[in-house]
Amino acid sequence: MKCPCHSGKSYEECCKPFHEGKPPENVLLLMRSRYAAYALGLADYIIQTTHPTNPHFSNNREEILRFSKETKFKDLTIHEWVDGETIAFVTFTAHLEQKGRDVSFTEKSRFVKEEGIWKYQSAEF
Fold it and tell me: By three-state DSSP, how is residue 65 classified?
C-alpha cells in the first residue's frame, strides 16, 4: 500500500516504522508520519508526538478518531522545512475534505526536541 503521507513510497518503507515506535530523525519525517497517522486513525501516535504545551493538545482518542474517520486525506504539500538542533519548522498544506467540502489548510508547524525526541508544539496559520 502507498503511504498515506503521499511521499510516493510504500507505507512499510515510509511511515510505518515511526508508527511502530522508531523515533523520526527529523521534523519532516515527523510531519509526514503525523499526517499519515491522522489518515490511518492512529490516535495514540498523534497524542504521543504532540508536545503537552501545544494549545490544542488533546489526549481524547475518540475526538482524534472521529476527525480521522470524517476526513479524506487527499494530499500533503511540503513548502518549506527549516531544520534546527532543538527547534525546527515545517510549512505545509494539508489537502483535506469533509462531507464533500474542501477543508484544506496551510500551516507553519513548530517542533521542539526534548530528550532526543521531536514533538509538535504549535502552529501559525
Answer: helix
3-class SS of residue 28: helix
Is the Cβ–Cβ distance between 94 and 104 less than 8 Å? yes
Report pLDDT digits (tens) over 61-90.
Answer: 999 999 999 999 999 999 999 999 999 999
- 122 burial (CB, 10 Å; 0-12 / 13-18 / 19+) is middle
Q: Where are the beta strands (DSSP E) in 3-71?
A: none
Please give the single-letter amino acid code of residue 74.
Answer: K
The DSSP element (H or E) to which 109 belongs, if any, is: strand 105-114
Question: Domain-by-domain residue ranges, the chain?
Answer: 16-124
Question: Does the domain formed by 16-124 have CATH 3.10.450.50?
Answer: yes
Cβ–Cβ < 8 Å for 97, 71: yes
Backbone angles phi, psi at 48, to 5 degrees: -65, -30
How far apart are alpha carbons 117 and 51 in whole angstroms? 10
Write the burial class of residue 4 (CB in 10 Å: 0-12 exposed, 13-18 middle, 19+ buried): buried
The mean pLDDT of 1-6, rounded to a whole number, is 96
